Amino acid sequence: MSEPAAFTLDDLRALLRADDADELTESRLDEEFDFLGYDSLAKYELASQLVRRYDLHVSDEAMDRLRTPRQAIDHINDLLAENPEKEVKS
Hints:
- By secondary structure, the protein is an all-alpha fold.
- It has five helices and no strands.
- Helices cover 52% and strands 0% of the residues.
């Protein structure tokens, strides 16, 4: 059985759908969402998009703890590893 596709920075940018998403680069993965211009509503929109597109549920508490894009990507990939039937189609 093959490994599921990983959730990537490009996937995150697509879900955030922000005007400055192209500013979200590899070199900025460890900067806090707030510093990057994403408020708490943007993070909850991300959680909503994860449910709609991938049927992945991220608790409000987990969303509160995800302060950087890297933390979000890692957490989403952990959820995918726990739920191999879920699939990211980039």
